[in-house]
Amino acid sequence: MVSDLALKVTIPIDTTWRPGEGARQPKLVFYVQPRGGLTGHLAKAAALKPGYSVPVLIDGPYGGVQGRPLYTYDYNLVIACGAGAGLSLPFVMESLLRSAWNQRTENKKPGTKIQVVMATRDSRLAQWYEEALVEYLEENGVDMVPDNLDISIYQTGMQEPKSDNATKDPESSDEKLNGNSQVVRRLPINVFSGRPDIRTVVRDAANQSGLSVGIAACGPREILKIVQDEAAAAQLRIMSSKSSASEVYLHSEVFS
After folding, report:
1. In terms of Cα–Cα distance, which of 92, 94, 144 is closest to 118?
2. 246 with 238: CB under 8 angstroms?
């Protein structure tokens, strides 16, 4: 798939798979913003010839969330800045599928609450993000969106609120884009102007009494430092038997 917003590259990862064997073919999916050079060449080829195929060599291994999967925690917080926005997609997609499965099997166990907070200068990120998730829902036959999902996208390139504390409250009328929160179609995506208060977001998530909290963050070092400091403070509170989450896990990735 290719658009002005992103080039979607799909790579089968099991060459022994054959149609009709029951399971869906496993694959890797990359979302690439077309620019110059190789990405621009691939985007032009895909636009002219849908389904365009080229050999790909993948070197690894690569990292990821270690130990327990993030969905095994009661509450998930995913923080992504700039190009790190792609980190959140797999967590959201997995949450959508698990919630749909629970509904179909009448599983009464409440799903993991997942909160996604993104900051970007790209005003079109919300559109791309929504398109990627809608396409994923359609591909997997999911026709519902769970109420345990909350996505906030902060457009930092727009004029920020004058109040220093405005971004601490997502319901603040000064913070909402053009005075009103934009909810993208049927997905719980809210778009705000200004910068999120990352410190407060992490602290609030880690202070939920009795819950296990899994945090994943991707962004520049200064943002990760804030997240790491708050996660460490939460773990100290747990060790001191103070009222807070029962467990806090952090996975962080820096990008340059």
Report:
1. 92
2. yes
Read off the pTM.
0.74
Choosing among 3.40.50.1980, 3.40.50.80, 3.40.605.10, 3.20.20.150, the CATH entry for 70-254 is 3.40.50.80
Helices (H) and strands (E) in the chain, counts: 5, 9
Q: Give, for all 256 residues of the chain, the pLDDT tens digit.
A: 545 556 677 766 665 545 554 556 667 777 777 777 877 887 888 788 877 777 777 666 566 677 788 888 999 999 999 877 888 888 888 888 888 777 777 666 666 889 999 999 888 888 888 888 888 888 888 877 777 889 999 998 755 444 443 334 433 333 333 333 443 446 888 999 999 999 999 999 999 888 999 999 999 999 999 999 999 999 999 988 887 889 999 998 887 5
Q: What b/e sequence results for 159-191 when a residue is b if at least 16 CB atoms lie within 10 Å of its CB, and e otherwise?
A: ebbeeeebbeebeeeebbbeeebeebeebebbb
Number of neighbours of residue 232 by Cβ within 10 angstroms: 13
- Please report the beta strands in 82-231, taking only residues with DSSP state E, as ranges in sequence order: 113-120, 149-155, 182-183, 189-193, 212-219
> Which part of the chain is CATH 3.40.50.80?
70-254
State the Cα–Cα distance between residues 181 and 173, nearest whole angstrom: 8
Q: CA nearest 191: which of 125, 110, 96?
A: 125
Gap between the Cα atoms of 6 and 11, Å rounded: 16
